[in-house]
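I'll show a typical protein example:
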Amino acid sequence: MTHLPVEFWEILDHAQRNGTFTYPILSLIEENIQAQNSLTINKIESLIVEIISDIASLKPPILQYNCRKRWENVQYIEGFGLQVKEDCVKTTVSLYRSGSSYNFGLILKVLCMIHRMILTNQSATKRDIFYNDPQLFKSQTTVNHIVDDIACMLDVPRYVLKVGATSKGVVAGDLQFSTDDGNIIDCRDISTGLSVPGRIHAIREVTSDSARFILVVEKDASFQRLLEEELPMKMSCILVTGKGVPDVDTRMFTKLLSDTLRVPVFGLFDADPYGIEIMCVYRFGSLSLAYDSGNLAIDNFRWIGLLPSDVATLGLLQQSLIPFTDGDTRKCRDLINRPYMAAFPDILHQVTLMQQLQCKAELQALELISQSYLTDTLIPSKVEMGEWI
């Protein structure tokens, strides 16, 4: 094991003591699954009764839920993340309107399947639902949107609907957890990492003998490189990657680890607009799933690199820098207008600095300085000096 300077651990201990990181008393994942199931069944049945009543009264039946595509529908709440406003714009799907009658029927079909799965305590993936009637649904994307729309409409986390998706996330390090079926998962001594489980709500116990923090890495290539350099052992941490934009299970799993183990989460991302956006998804939640930020947004998330300011101060070789595109410029403008940026001027500064530099850099660019620059220099120095955002 590499012996890090005492200051490395002292800065973490000091941050924990002075309230830099705060943790909930209990996990946000509801333990009383039976009560949630009953409530969801009641919501679905009440919705169907209302539709039948409208048809009987010759009223056009409609389905309504918060529009998941408009930034003006959400606000940033300190210590929580993105939250849907009470007076937000609604999406309306009508049975009798030609532009939405097809979607109305699809939503009812998936609602019927969800109702049956909850009653029989079965589950399915989004892929399973699509192949139930591929000619009707036409595309997997259609099913994905419908499931999330239903969760938003019923105001429940997606896992309550008994619908999951194959997680693409990977985890490695000193971590063990058990599931409701009695299995014990050990993430130690795994050379390439273990897949993040697809039933986060089924995790019953999470333990670690030595982990002092969680390190989220944007891309799998960087994750595998850090594993090769034995970073979890050297720095007593747990490594997680969502392999790009993280799926729901990876985000929920990372939050669960932080809340349960009571350790902070640090993030390593490319110094480009999309890397910053992915960091914000972990930390503040996403627009489309703002209704479930309580289970997904990680308030103890801190950004340690690669910062646009690092690109300037490290003197990266010109050959390792990537010129800005029009798409990058548009993404920066979009980020600057996000509702959480006003509360985090340091993040806003990094976005505007990147605009000024008109270039971006990937984590792999650090290998031109040294093959082990991340593990030997950047990560230890950032934590030891408390240089996180």
In short: The chain has 15 helices and 17 strands.
